[in-house]
């Protein structure tokens, strides 16, 4: 079983929270979590991210029981591609939504095993025994420069175009979804987040926070949010935490502001 919490905040600068966040246990027993970080003028990013979450949850709500994690991952990919079609169609049919889009990072779990799907620069991290590993590879301009050794890791954290994505959901008729398998052991934590967290909170800070067993899971999520706010909070911030337990009763808690 997994304990799940999420928190989403508009931040200190933005007037609208264009992130959409969702985590729950589906009727069929699978655990599903989503973070979508919208982009576009006239609050179109808010619409794109919300449409994405609604489409994915709607498509996966009727999954049959007993599927493997791999099969669940394929269904998650189909749902994300369906969301891409829906957002792209709305953007092309309504001038006020032209070029709107969203990132998405989502995880679906059948028991201990799961699949992470993502488009854009929202991220998934896996925390185990004090160590944190980034599972996703940003589809961003800065990451391309970093991989090509055109900038250093330190320069990447301060780059003026670090928010420019090279792949997004809804901006093009077709899009590629990256998939990663993950297996959770008791005590492991999966972190999904928008770049409002990852641009301001270091992996070391994340690991220290997630490893602080004096805090409940909800308090650890809130601590991560506060770290991002204290570092500037220039963007919307969304955090999902899923903690693997053997026999714990799954619960969902949220804080929105």
From TrEMBL:
It comes from the Bacteria. SMART domains: PP2C_SIG (SM00331), PP2Cc (SM00332). Residues 3-244 form the PPM-type phosphatase domain. It holds the Pfam family PP2C_2. InterPro entries: PP2C, PPM-type-like_dom_sf, PPM-type_phosphatase-like_dom. PROSITE patterns: PPM_2. This is Stp1/IreP family PP2C-type Ser/Thr phosphatase. It comes from Paenibacillus timonensis. The lineage of its organism: Bacteria, Bacillati, Bacillota, Bacilli, Bacillales.
